[in-house]
Amino acid sequence: MTHKECAVTVTIGDKEFSRTYQQIEKSSLTVDDLLKLLSDEKTVKQTIADYHYGMDLRAKSEVRNAILGEVAGPEKAFEKSVKDFMKLREANGKPVSEETARRIVTAYKDAE
Known about the structure:
The chain is of the alpha+beta class. The protein has helices spanning 31-39, 41-91, 98-111; strands at residues 3-12, 15-24.
């Protein structure tokens, strides 16, 4: 089993913080490596917990992606319409607040 150094970067406001960790290279992991982890009392519980965690993430991501597909599309389109309306008004020398733009775009959407 081999490892590679990977960076994790977190952005908070306008600052970035970065640290590295040792990631197991997927292609280097063998059945023998897994059997060894499962035969060692020190690592068996963590290995099983990691497996369940990964399976849970996969199941949640499928549900999350389904929700995003249904809801995020229209919501993103609405947000883009608000921003575009604000840019158009500003370009014409008559800027409006985001709140006003939201009301106007909502009224236009409801009128359709």
